[in-house]
Amino acid sequence: MKRSIKFITFSLCLFCIAYNPVYAGIFKNNKDFEITKFLNFDIANYQFEDHAKILGKNSIAWNGEADQLPKDAVDTKEIKVIINGKSETLTLIQYKEKISLTLKFHSNITCKNAEEIVPKKYIKKENYYTYEHTNILFLLPFTKNTRTRFSIDNGSSRIHFSCLELFFLDSKSRTTIASISIQTKNNSEPKVVPIKSIICTLDKIIVKGDYKWNVVEPTQIIFHL
Questions:
Q1: pLDDT, tens digit, for every residue of 185-225?
Q2: 180: CB partners within 8 A, 6+ apart
Q3: Please, are residues 1 and 28 in contact by the beta-carbon 8 Å criterion?
Q4: Helix (H) or strand (E) holding 180
């Protein structure tokens, strides 16, 4: 009888631990990612020490190598999440005076597909811009790049979407750097605002150094302000 009681008590303890929200995490490792839950997450209510509440008890700790940390960060915890069948990385980052929760997309995604993950009702045109730039001087190793950014305010937090898509000279390859990051408004970048474009005509190139240039005919270029 005593053994049965002990077994039942032990089982109940395991059950409580398994279903304790502290251990379960708001976001689940290797599970389908709930984007609306992420967009409504107010990071101002948490500290880095709350990583188990946010990411669960099985998050991956920083390996101690400085080159593996984001710029100005001092510690990280991360999990893998599933979006449209693809594995993406969700990272809680501790900086010296702030924290952020960042969803980083794989490099094969397009900016268009990354943006479509966010429901349209969250995106406001007054906090959004996108533009395409063509490299006519051939100094850089890519021919074209597309950049999209927008911000969303939620409570005391601000969400920033950023995507840069690079198309390389061989015209057969490209890579994308895309992420969505949440920080408190006090520590975040300003709201994204639309940019304006001006068109100029390039008549000639004057350059210092040993670069060898192809002849560039007068052409129009676009600057984004």
A1: 988 889 998 876 666 666 665 555 555 555 455 555 555 55
A2: 38, 102, 103, 118, 159, 160, 161, 162
A3: no
A4: strand 174-184
